[in-house]
Amino acid sequence: MNRTIARATGAAVVLAGLMTLAPSVASAEETRAFLGTTVEKTSASAKRTALQQAYDHASAYGYTQDQCVIIHLYSVKISFVMYRGEAGIHCTK
């Protein structure tokens, strides 16, 4: 008899725990990361183009710019007149 009560109590505690998680799982937000890369003649142009490319990728998945946060944005000189730009964004719906 005591084992049955203990099992029922344990099951009720587990069920209560799962019920508290259910609303947070149902309201989970969809997040994705997007990357843009390019090669340009100036550092500013490389950054700008890479960032626009990342936003373009995000818009293809239904995200707007105000739903996105810039994670990284930089450029590296790869030759005398060329820069490689990279931008990473994280978007949440």
UniProtKB/TrEMBL annotation:
Signal sequence, renumbered to the chain? 1-28
Q: Does the keyword Signal apply?
A: yes
UniProt entry tagged with the keyword Signal? yes
Name the UniProt key words of this record, in alphabetical order. Answer: Signal
Q: What is the protein named?
A: DUF732 domain-containing protein
